[in-house]
Amino acid sequence: MTMTWLSRLAATSSRRVNYAAAASHGRRTFATSENLVKTALNQMHKDLGGSMVPFAGYELPVLFEGHDHGGVLKEHHWCRAKAGLFDVSHMGQVRWRGKDRVAFLETLVVSPIADLKVHHGCLSLITNETGGIIDDTVITNAGDYLYMVINGATKHSDMEHFQRQLDEFEGDVSMEYLGDDMQLLAIQGPAAASAVKTLLPSNFELEKMAFMTGVDTTLDGVNGCRITRCGYTGEDGFELAMPASAAEAIAGRLLQDPNVNPTGLGARDSLRLEAGLCLYGNDLNETINPVEAGLAWTMGPPKSRRRMQQGFLGAEHILTPDGKLQAVSRKRIGIFGMKAPARDHTEIYDATGETKIGEVTSGTFGPTVKAPVAMGYVDAASSKVGTEIMLKIRNKMVKAQVTKMPFITPNYYKVPSSE
Questions:
Q1: How many angstroms separate the Cα of 257 from the Cα of each of 191, 197, 252, 306?
Q2: What percent of the chain has pLDDT above 70?
Q3: Is it true that the peptide bond before 302 is cis, omega within 30 degrees of 0?
């Protein structure tokens, strides 16, 4: 079957492939096998049967072999039904301090950071001078600092961008990159909460923790940790930050739960695509702006403070002076109904098959929906849900349709009503 790069690599992992060469595909940042960074769980991954590949300069498992629940498809289904544990320590963790930290962050990202209540977070976009997306990020108001997580493949260029903006900013703000001294795990799925609860202090009320909130805490008695209820699979779940010295022990505790399964990059890719979530470098890049990407909601609703005041890089290329969205020539769409999966870069045509209108940016077989799924960009006039399109797959025209995303029903956590 045809899959995204990660899923294709996972499918060939049992054959002796040149991972370093394979990893050069696409628009991500990779390192050679000689200088890959190893996370604190590197040996644990190998002991568990992890098939290790280069990704974003790190050596990470694309899938796990040698046990009943290993392999991309089984790991994907296990996460949807129970809980998958992912090593996401390649991602960048940044703390912002100083009395002007919020004002500075609002020059970098499109979202209303000043409106975040303590412990609450949001997905946002880092933009450049032309309104293009430098990266997507999650930012949480941690009280006396702002906690930011950025993508592993872009974290160093992101921080170079941040530093250039800091050099021009007149105010009290400092950036602290936590580096590889802090590791990051993600646990996702319906059984994630019960597994995580065993690590938390006895008085931690996890059932009252809303999605997209986070707090500093201890994990398994270890100080200096952090928990955020978020994720990138469409399921309930958490990101757990901890000192590198404690990462293996904490991961080991989680894996003692029979409902928790080690899960690699391959399943993470198919899970996020079914959930309609973007992969930076494929679905987002510096030439795509938030309106084109269908992410204008990250700026807030019409006539909201952020839309009206603007003030972030490239705002004049995204919004009109009165806060309305500027017209765009292309839009991101979901694609469904094709008989064969479509790779990224697959050409999209109108229903006649004669006029090219766009290109697939991510595509794979969706294990949960049991059908191929994809997303991509097309001319704005062809972006309406229900529009019939054609995909050029292996030099054959295949019928498909523009559809809503996500492709699955999300299971994000909602705090039970007190009534």
A1: 9, 11, 9, 44
A2: 92
A3: no
Q: Which distant-in-sequence residues (6+ apart) come within 8 Å of 62 by Cβ?
A: 6, 9, 10, 13, 51, 52, 53, 55, 264, 265, 266
The helix, strand and coil proportions of the chain, stated in percent and rounded to the nearest 5, come to: 25, 30, 45
Q: Decide if pLDDT at 40 tops 80.
A: yes
* End-to-end Cα separation, the chain, in angstroms: 49
Task: Kindly provide the b/e burial profile for residues 229-254, where b requires at least 16 CB atoms within 10 angstroms of the residue's own CB.
Answer: bbbbbbbbbbbbbbbeebbbebbebb
Paired tokens of 57? 């300069």
- The predicted-structure confidence for 198-253, as pLDDT tens digits, reads as follows 999 999 999 999 999 999 999 999 999 999 999 999 999 999 999 999 999 999 99
**With bands split at pLDDT 50, 70 and 90, how would you rate the model's confidence at 347?**
very high
Query: In Å, how far from its chain's centre is CA 219?
Result: 23
Q: Between helices 101-108 and 155-168, what is the axis angle to 10°?
A: 120
142: nearest Cα among 187, 102, 111: 102
pLDDT band at 417 (very low <50, low <70, confident <90, very high): confident
Per-position b or e across 385-416, b if 16+ CB within 10 A of its CB = eebebbbbbeeeebebbbbebbbbeebebeee
Nearest to 275 by CA among 322, 231, 229, 305: 231
Question: Residue 11 has which token pair?
Answer: 């499918």
To 10 degrees, what angle do helices 265-274 and 72-81 make? 60
pLDDT category of residue 267 using cuts at 50, 70 and 90: very high
Query: How many CB atoms neighbour CB 19 within 10 A?
Result: 21
Strand order in the sheet with 37-38: 37-38, 58-64, 50-55
Regarding beta strands 83-87 and 182-188, do their DSSP bridges make them parallel or antiparallel, or are they unpaired? antiparallel
Between 29 and 294, the more confident residue is 294
Q: Which residue has the tokens 């928790």?
A: 260
